[in-house]
Amino acid sequence: MSFYYFRLTAFILLSWAFYPALQAQTLSAGHYLQTSEMHHLMQQYEADYRSLSRFYFIKHSPERRERLRQLAGDYLEKLEKEQFGRFSINGKVDFVLFRRDLEEQLHILGLEEEKFRETKQWFGFAAAVYDLEKQRRRGASLEGQETGALLSGLAKDVRAASASLGKADAIDSRVAAFATETIEGLREALKSVYDFYNGYDPAFTWWAPAPYKELDTLLAGYDKLFKSKSKVISSQKEDGSGIRGNPIGREEIIRQLEYEMIPYSPEELVEIANKEFAWCDREMLKASAEMGFGQDWKKALEKVKNTYVAPGRQPELILQLYNASVSFLKEKDLVSIPPIAEESWRMIMMSPERQLVNPFFTGGEVISISYPANTMEQSAKLMSMRGNNPHFSRATVHHELIAGHHLQQFMNRRYKVYRDFDTPFWTEGWSLYWEMLLWDQGFPESPEDRIGMLFWRMHRCARIIFSLNYHLGKWSPQQCIDFLVERVGHEYANAEGEVRRSFTGGYSPLYQLAYMIGGLQFYSLKEELVESGKMTFREYHDAVLQENNIPVEMLRFILTDQAPARDFKTNWRFYNK
User: Fold this and answer.
1) Which one, out of 250, 291, 535, 564, has a CA that is 20 to 30 A from the CA of 267?
2) Is the pLDDT of residue 358 over 80?
3) Is residue 30's pLDDT more than 70?
4) 288: Cβ–Cβ under 8 A, 6 or more apart, which residues?
């Protein structure tokens, strides 16, 4: 027995002695550990950010902005003290991305400061509200009569500000939106004061309720006045489309591309899109010829559009296409699919209102089916049915569910969850990559299927071209709509919805080009790792999903066992066609 304990003790001591080396080896291997040397600092920042956001909760208040700016600066200082050279690859990747996001946070707060200065003239009374809420947080005793008088005085100030605003010309919609958000914060601050003292503090309850309610009503009216003055003021000229966005210009496009780690100029990205478009054109003509339409691919496309299913049958079709795609993935052993991921997705029907900006279904754990509702006009019903026909949908069900967005989200909640580096080039690029890969693997069974898949690939190429040309100030929304109709074969209403979604739907300016460009990044990495024999498809795809949502260039460092430099600048030229 004593000999047994001797061996056990020796084993434990040896294991402990070799643990640091084993840990370093495992860390350097990349995706095997669910942590890195940066994990705790990143988690601390996230916890600190949330704590301070709950405490300084008043939207757009100078106090909140300055405190968050200080927080980001403090963590940048902490990063400078980290021993980067001793980090594993995962640690170095996290260091680079964490620093990048802290710097971006400072940039965003700087933009907020600029908008604050633009609207400051209309909010001379705001400082008193912020100060009142600040006292409330720690339960300061307020003199009831003085507080009531303060609120009455603020009501007079809001009346005067409203009168001044009423005489003003139209206000840029972005500035007006910031102003209405500021008012929302002020009303929230006042409500927190009122709810805290009213009914509990006798003097406050005697003097403050009436002036508080008057002030809140006036602020609500002030909010409506800003909204009535709001007007899209843009370098974009009116073109009759009814879509008014704000092109960001070449300089800002390049800044955002650098942030997303895409080392290409806007012009180079358009060139890539045109090259991919040329491939689509060739394949589309082949499929058209097989269907008996020769070079007239639009007639072939028209036939495919008219294969739509009857009203009420679209959910059945989605389930059928889902089963077909998952069976194909399993047959080819392309990716691991957790049973609960298969079990837990579900469907909803998309509202007619949402279909105005999302003419095609969207997905994740919940797939939202875009198909006609009884309240839609007949022409809109037909366009929706034609645009969501079985062959078009065959290319996108797996994009939205498995192995696309649903599987992504499922794995993100289970692997390296401390990483919060959300980028559409990973999110949309991964799903688009599967459209490319399943094409290569023979998923389309007929020329009609190929036309459906090609329609979507052409659509992704078109997104790069029209979104960049718009933000460069070269194209109007109407030109973008016409391009989608003529070059891709969209239904007009669907093209209009796509353009509206792109420029007024709250998406970032680079979001639409992220599909194809991100997909090409994943495709290039697949060639580097799978085609070379270093990994199987399943190993590659599982490894991607276990690293969470990060720029693909950073993912490449991890999977190829390389490390980014401390002063890393994006440089991966992934497109070689």
Assistant:
1) 564
2) no
3) no
4) 294, 295, 296, 297, 299, 300, 447, 451
Q: Which residue matches tokens 């949908």?
A: 393
**Are 106 and 72 within 8 A, CB to CB?**
yes
pLDDT tens string 448-494 = 999 999 999 999 999 999 999 999 999 999 999 999 999 999 888 88
DSSP character for 85?
G
One-letter identity of residue 418: Y
Interatomic CA distance for residues 493 and 481, integer angstroms: 9
Question: Rounded to whole angstroms, how far apart are CA atoms 400 and 498?
Answer: 17
- Across the range 532-548, mean pLDDT stands at 97
Please count the other Cβ atoms lying within 10 Å of the Cβ belonging to residue 548: 23
Nearest CA-CA partner of 171 in 225, 107, 236: 225
> DSSP assignment, residue 315?
H
What 373-382 contacts at long range (C-beta under 8 Å, 24+ apart), as own/partner pairs, is 373/349, 376/352, 379/493, 380/352, 380/493, 381/311
Q: Measure the CA–CA gap between 97 and 418, rounded to whole angstroms.
A: 12
End-to-end CA separation in angstroms for the chain: 69
pLDDT value for 381: 87
Give the tokens for residue 245. 């966005």
CA dist 236 and 264 (Å) reads 25
Say yes or no to pLDDT of 26 above 50.
no
Q: d(Cα 56, Cα 15) in Å, to the nearest integer? A: 48
Q: What is the largest CA-CA distance in the chain?
A: 94
Q: Rounded to whole angstroms, how far apart are CA atoms 43 and 394?
A: 40
Spell out the residues 6+ positions from residue 421 whose beta carbon is closer than 8 angstroms to its own.
97, 101, 548, 549, 550, 551, 554
Please count the other Cβ atoms lying within 10 Å of the Cβ belonging to residue 320: 15
Which residues, listed in sequence order, are joined to residue 230 by a DSSP beta bridge?
A: 171
Residue 13 pLDDT exceeds 60: no
Bridge partners, 347 (sequence order): 367
366: tokens are 């919940």
**pLDDT the model gives residue 32:** 55
Q: Under a CB-based contact definition with an 8 Å cutoff, are residues 526 and 540 in contact? A: yes
On the 0-12 / 13-18 / 19+ scale of CB atoms within 10 A, 443 is buried
